[in-house]
Specification:
The protein is of the alpha+beta class and 141 residues long. It has one domain (4-140): Transcriptional Co-activator pc4, Chain A, CATH 2.30.31. It contains three helices and seven strands, in the order ββββαβββαα. The chain has a seven-stranded antiparallel β-sheet. α1 packs across α2.
Length: 141
């Protein structure tokens, strides 16, 4: 049984010289991939840009700076332009460049709470069909 949780977020893209560009992103979580969270950035008329990273990374990032390499997440008590209020910073790096986003921390927390109702923390492994995953890997080899 596949259960999916999703949410639309208003994000702010922080670009050099502290210019701020508002955009919309979609968060999604599925029991088919219980360790992962997907975020799709809607940046125009093209297909959204999608990133996949650990649900645990997003959850830890609400509390403290976390992540290595391509994805780093951390909380802040004010936005890049000095507006007070809790924001979640999400920094993404790829060979094509780097992007820094601010997300409303309360909305991300609410999304995560809904994912934990579907798959409680620590029970992700119960939602993975190891035999099917292994069979698919062997078929691709």
């Amino acid at each position: 049984m596949n259960n999916t949780v999703s949410a639309e977020l208003g994000l702010r893209l922080i670009v050099p010289q502290q210019t701020i560009v508002p955009l919309v992103a979609s968060l999604s979580y599925s029991t088919e991939d219980p360790y992962a969270t997907r975020i799709a950035f809607h940046v125009g008329l093209d297909e959204p840009v999608e990133w996949i990273f650990a649900r645990e990374l997003l959850a830890k990032g609400i509390e403290e700076r976390t992540g290595l390499g391509d994805v780093q997440v951390w909380p802040a008590s004010e936005s890049a332009d000095g507006v007070p209020g809790q924001v979640l910073n999400i920094e993404l790096s790829s060979p094509f460049g780097q992007a820094h986003f601010e997300a409303p921390i309360a909305e991300v927390s609410a999304f995560l709470q809904r994912t934990y109702q579907v798959v409680p923390e620590g029970q992700e492994g119960q939602h993975v069909d190891v035999e099917a995953e292994l069979s698919e890997l062997l078929d691709q080899a």
